[in-house]
Task: structure prediction
Amino acid sequence: MEQNIWSRIKALEGQTLYTTKQRRPFNVVSVGDERISLTIGPSSKKTSIRRDTLEEAFEHSKTKGEVRPTDIRKAKISEARPTYVAAIIHAIRDKGST
Result:
């Protein structure tokens, strides 16, 4: 199951995604074995999100139905980048069944 999730995340490499609420664009620069690298905003600020964070958020979304940044922060899955975690989870859920 986890491999299937990560293969969907790897398929996002090179794409522009949008945050769920404000529709702000960010780019998926690369997807390695343990993290996804992003560029954010007009300055192309670089950041990354760990694989285990995204897998935990995906599992959380299966029990909640919809995943929102506030849910991710409250569940202490990601306090630093919940907006981008939620957008990535939405993108992979749109690409395959849960």
